[in-house]
Amino acid sequence: MKLPVYLYGHPVLRNVSKEVKPDYPGLDGLLEGMWATMYESEGVGLAAPQIGRNDRIVVIDADPVKETFPECAGRKFVLINPEIEVLGGDPVSRGEGCLSLPGLSEDVKRVEHILLRWQDENFEAHEEEICGFLARIVQHECDHLEGKLYIDHVGGIRKQLIKNKLNNIATGRIRCDYPVKYGPKARR
Known about the structure:
By secondary structure, the protein is of the alpha+beta class. The protein has four helices and nine strands. The strands form three sheets. It has a five-stranded antiparallel β-sheet with strand order 2-3-4-7-8, sandwiched between helices. A two-stranded parallel sheet has the order 1-9. A hairpin with a 5-residue loop joins strand 7 (113-119) and strand 8. The longest helix is centred in the first third of the chain and has 14 residues, at 27-40. The chain is globular and about 45 Å long.
């Protein structure tokens, strides 16, 4: 079941998500819907806030970008209650986009070497060092769980330059190829 993606301007995207417990009701169905939504929207990651749920759940399938970023080959996983520890290195600037900010792409500086701790869909604990573009994807999606968007990492001047585009998203003056849910300021 495909779910609507909540767009910039919706308050759910700015809330800090809560921890998920093993007795979480309907987890399998929720994950099924998240995968379907991510694939339908042609994303490589999706966090629960993007479908209106402030729960610490992320799905990632980085395999589609493996030609450009080999570290992403075969990397498909569910992250429940993920935690990130920065392991070092200078931040690298690369373009990022987001299903909740359709039509936008901005350069964002992020470190590319992290330690990721998480639980999978069976609540088994994992820990892994992750590098390169895969680390960027993980950080981007985990930011959603903290109520942050990639544009929060963009400098003030650049934010001013994209202000009208952000306003168009927030007020519903954009079109998407996937089902969406607009925020309260949308005129739809």
